[in-house]
Write a structure and sequence with these properties.
This protein is α/β, with parallel strands linked by helices. Among the domains are: 12-139, Immunoglobulins (Immunoglobulin-like); 587-703, Immunoglobulin-like, CATH 2.60.40.1180. Helices cover 21% and strands 19% of the residues. The strands form 8 sheets. An 8-stranded parallel beta barrel has the order 12-13-16-17-18-19-20-21. A hairpin with an 8-residue loop joins strand 28 (669-674) and strand 29. Helix 9 packs across helix 10 (425-432) and helix 13 runs parallel beside helix 14 (558-576). The longest helix is centred in the C-terminal third of the chain and has 20 residues, at 500-519. The protein is elongated, with a radius of gyration of 27 Å. It starts with 11 loop residues before the first strand and ends with a strand.
Length: 707
């Protein structure tokens, strides 16, 4: 095999049309061998070639005889001294951190561990068995693709509606799609899937992790899988199990085709990315990639006992983003998905971990600074899950100015209000108005708040209103897993599916949550299946459930069809009403005067004052939104929308709502929806009479200027 010096950058295996440049960073390694395999079934490499050059601690070489389709891995030599953090073991075949595709998935075997399992000295021992027959293989790919005029859609945040979904779970049971395409990238790009998303009205899909990941050892021993995929092993390679094609060389093409098709339909693609930990786990985890390449550089090790890892996520390790090469790997990965794969943005799992410098979360960390100055990444959608489990990890409202955040306080407040808790009305007003208390001080807009009631991690919306407790028995962990704080509201009689009143109340509460979500300032995020009443039978942690608990069911009842149509109408109303998606915060929220953009009302038709916000036992609220200049169009002109009146009643008794003179004087009002029966028929209202707001329901009214 011919080999020339090559170049230290770009990292990974890169085909230039003539040959392949190989480059791998390792600060402490003494030698790196490239291992070539003839087929995915091969148990040993056909050839080993030492990378001939080392520059800037990057081992590299150029191979004029290699081409796309080459299967490869690395063996990295260096000290094995776990007490000091060194875990080099050339008996372990290592996956390329920059691999663009997976040539063969992992098959669990004891030889994948750098130490001998069962040894009394545990991870301090040394295992000399060859892991090549079982380790995942990297694949050289040709990244060329005909994109045509495809480009990022750059839909403004205020017009964005996010649909959080799992690639497989969304189409696995969609019978209109050919069976071989269900549950794949190609299935998501199929005409039935695209048609559904378009008719629903969402503008972006947020895909649960599609980076190459592995199933944890303990899950495979229980014959289960990591369905959600928060266990990454490759930050550049698309997960092969979501590919309709079985040809590894075509998997990247299938993903790109999906993005291109979604873009053509006007739908953005946002990736849920997991850079806060890797699949190698803690000191007792396997040696699959980074651990064997340079453990002390890639991972955050304990300062005093470098045998152990500092873990901010509960998953065993945390990448050491203070190291410039580790930070470079994350940035190279992000840029690759934007420039080569054309995605529109990212949602960062446990993003607080990425901002940790000297253990503490730092808004001026290198991670934020590099992203902010990057001409590519600073222009895409950036969404933070603004917490981790480490000390000081709850950072809601504290991310820098170009970031948006999952608003956990919005979720909790809406659940408490519709549950009927006392003392929630004041905070509810803040959450409906865009959470200025969290985002306004550092110059951000209402769109900094990604509002949600449910997400993949927790109950589905149907289960939220149906269960007293979580039912995670299927996970095999004694129902001890899952978040107890996600349990919020239930109808009081679990499993009473034959009781019409209970069923009607559950349906209504679902409509209340969805209606609240789509009239709130900020960016609404909908969990896929919630619009259909999908149930996971009370399991609020379906991370390992690759089955009917997670797959969306499309054989809908009449009631589910009605709920779906109600949600479609909600999204349509939001799109029509600029006052519901403002670019800036309201000027005032308390006083009655002609310049107010929002006025808050009690059920007696009085404008709320400071003392009235603190009244215990208050379970209703009204707000008047004036439509003048709610948005700015692309030419910079004001968009004048309708005046809107929103009434909410979380009490178990009806609340007649008096319409105040200021509202009546504006002109004729039309009701757009009432959640009590899910009615979306437009009805002209008599504002001289109190509106009969029914128990646990809300209604929306509009006044069109000139009516």
């Amino acid at each position: 095999m011919r080999v020339w010096p090559g170049h230290p950058y770009p990292l990974g295996a890169n085909w230039d049309g003539t040959g392949v440049n190989i480059a791998l960073f390792s600060d402490k390694a003494t030698k790196v061998e490239l291992c070539l395999f003839d087929s995915p079934e091969a148990t040993h490499e056909s050839e080993r070639i030492e990378l001939p050059e080392r520059m800037y601690n990057v081992f590299h070489g150029y191979f004029p005889d290699l081409k796309p389709g080459t299967l490869y891995g690395f063996r990295v030599y260096g000290p094995y001294d776990p007490q000091n953090g060194y875990r080099f073991n050339p008996n372990k075949l290592l996956f390329d951190p920059y691999a663009r595709a997976v040539g063969r998935p992992l098959k669990w075997d004891d030889s994948l561990f750098g130490y001998r399992l069962g040894d009394p000295t545990t991870d301090l021992s040394f295992d000399d068995r060859d892991s090549a027959p079982f380790a995942p293989l990297s694949l050289v790919v040709d990244t060329a693709f005909t994109w045509g005029n495809d480009h990022r859609l750059e839909i403004p945040w205020e017009r964005t509606i996010i649909y959080e979904m799992h690639v497989k779970g969304f189409t696995k049971l969609m019978t209109e799609i050919p069976e071989k395409l269900r549950g794949t990238y190609a299935g998501l790009a199929s005409a039935p899937a695209i048609s559904y998303l378009k008719r629903l009205g969402v503008t972006a899909v947020e895909l649960l992790p599609i980076h190459f990941h592995i199933d944890e050892h303990f899950l495979t021993q229980q014959q289960r899988v990591n369905y959600w995929g928060y266990n990454s092993l490759g930050f550049f390679a698309p997960e092969p199990r979501y590919c309709a094609t079985h040809d590894p060389e075509l998997m990247v093409q299938e993903f790109k085709s999906m993005v291109r098709t979604l873009h053509a339909a006007g739908i953005e693609v946002i990736l849920d990315v997991v850079y806060n930990h890797t699949a190698e786990g803690n000191e007792r985890g396997p040696t699959l990639s980074w651990r064997g390449i340079d453990n002390t550089s890639y991972y955050y090790l304990n300062d005093s006992q470098r045998r152990y890892y500092t873990d901010f996520t509960g998953c065993g390790n945390s990448p050491y983003l203070r190291h410039p090469r580790v930070l470079q790997m994350v940035m190279d990965s992000l840029r690759y998905w934007v420039t080569e794969m054309h995605v529109d943005g990212f949602r960062f799992d446990l993003a607080a971990t990425l901002a940790r410098q000297f253990h503490n979360v730092d808004r001026m960390s290198a991670f934020f600074n590099v992203i902010h100055q990057d001409p590519i990444l600073s222009q895409v959608k950036l969404i933070a899950e603004p917490w981790d489990i480490g000390e000081g990890g709850y950072q809601s409202g504290r991310f820098p100015i170009i970031w948006t955040e999952w608003n956990g306080r919005y979720r909790d407040c809406l659940r408490q209000f519709w549950k009927g808790d006392d003392g929630t009305v004041a905070e509810l007003a803040t959450r409906l108005a865009g959470s200025s208390d969290l985002y306004e001080d550092n110059g951000r807009q209402p769109s900094a708040s990604v509002n949600f009631v449910t997400c993949h991690d927790g109950f589905t919306l149907r289960d939220l209103v149906s269960y007293n407790d979580k039912h995670n028995e299927a996970n095999g962990e004694g129902n001890r897993d899952g978040n107890n704080h996600n349990i919020s509201w239930n109808c009081g009689i679990e499993g009473a599916t034959n009781n019409p009143e209970i069923m009607a109340l559950r349906d209504r509460q679902q409509r209340n949550f969805l209606a609240s979500l789509f009239v709130s300032q900020g960016v609404p995020m909908l969990l896929a299946g919630d619009e259909l009443g999908h149930s996971a039978q009370g399991n609020n942690n379906c991370y390992a459930q690759d089955n009917f608990l997670s797959w969306i069911k499309w054989d809908l009842t009449d009631g589910q069809h009605q709920q779906l149509e109600f949600l479609r109408r909600l999204i349509e109303i939001r799109r029509e009403q600029p006052a519901l998606s403002r670019r800036r915060f309201f000027k005032s929220v308390t006083h009655e005067d002609d310049d107010n953009e929002v006025c808050w009302l009690d059920c007696d038709g009085h404008f709320m004052t400071g003392t009235e916000w603190d009244t215990r036992g208050r379970h209703s609220l009204g707000l008047l939104l004036l439509g003048h200049c709610s948005q700015i169009d692309e030419q910079g002109a004001c968009i004048i929308g309708d005046n809107l009146l929103i009434l909410l009643n979380a009490h178990y008794e009806p609340t007649p709502f008096v319409i105040p003179p200021k509202v009546r004087s504006i002109g004729k009002w039309e009701r757009l929806f009432d959640t009590y029966a899910g009615d979306t028929t437009i009805v002209t209202c008599d504002t001289l009479q109190p509106y009969p707001l029914q128990p646990r329901s809300m209604a929306l009214f509009r006044h069109r200027p000139g009516m």
